[in-house]
Design brief:
The chain is an alpha+beta fold. It contains ten helices and six strands, in the order αααββββαββαααααα.
């Protein structure tokens, strides 16, 4: 009975590690520099796309879906992926992840649903797409607007939202918690390492 409890505890710790908080802002700040996108612009777009208040701060949330115009915020990657797998064939219009990549228009550019939901893949694709829009239309205003839509009224509304967040970020009215969740991951990693060693000593699991 004791051995079973230890194994269950290890599994729960591992699942927590997989689903621990991943901060989109950490990725957008890093990747926008790689793609020479103006400072804080990609982060501003992510806040418009998947912004929610978490741990007392407004952040862009990786486990976000927009289903036919309605936002759904999940607690973990697994929950989000389960919903996607059950619904993506029935729902024609679903946007995914930090940057709300549209399955309808972009799914063919990803290997799988896991791939499009992966935060770094999601943000990197958005950066490439935004940069390609800038290259084509020659201005950041047009690139920002067309990231969302080509319909004139929607473009104007979206650009205004992004610029509001962009201004707030540059004036530090909104601060991106770069290290959110990373301390939790570190503590869990240490616990998982400890249990792995204990399992090896006791030969409870051969393949850990």
């Amino acid at each position: 009975m004791g051995k079973i409890f230890i194994i269950i505890l290890f599994i729960s710790l591992f699942n927590f590690k997989v689903n621990a908080t991943i901060n989109c802002g950490q990725l957008t700040e890093k990747i926008e520099r790689e793609y020479k996108i103006p400072n804080k612009l990609l982060t501003s777009i992510s806040l418009v796309e998947s912004g929610i208040k978490k741990e007392g701060r407004f952040v862009s949330w990786p486990w976000t879906l927009n289903v036919s115009g309605k936002s759904k915020f999940f607690n973990s990657q697994n929950e989000t992926l389960d919903y996607l797998k059950k619904n993506y064939k029935k729902k024609n219009n679903i946007d995914v992840g930090c940057m709300q990549i549209s399955l309808k228009y972009h799914k063919q550019n990803f290997k799988s649903l896991d791939h499009i939901l992966d935060p770094e893949t999601n943000v990197r694709y958005a950066a490439e797409y935004l940069r390609s829009l800038y290259t084509r239309y020659k201005t950041w205003n047009e690139a920002i607007s067309r990231y969302h839509s080509s319909v004139p009224k929607r473009k104007v509304r979206y650009l205004k939202k992004v610029k509001n967040y962009w201004s707030d970020l540059r004036q530090q009215k909104i601060k991106i918690p770069i290290n959110i969740g990373l301390d939790v991951l570190s503590k869990r990693d240490k616990k998982i390492k400890y249990f792995k060693e204990e399992f090896r000593k006791q030969k409870l699991l051969d393949n850990i």
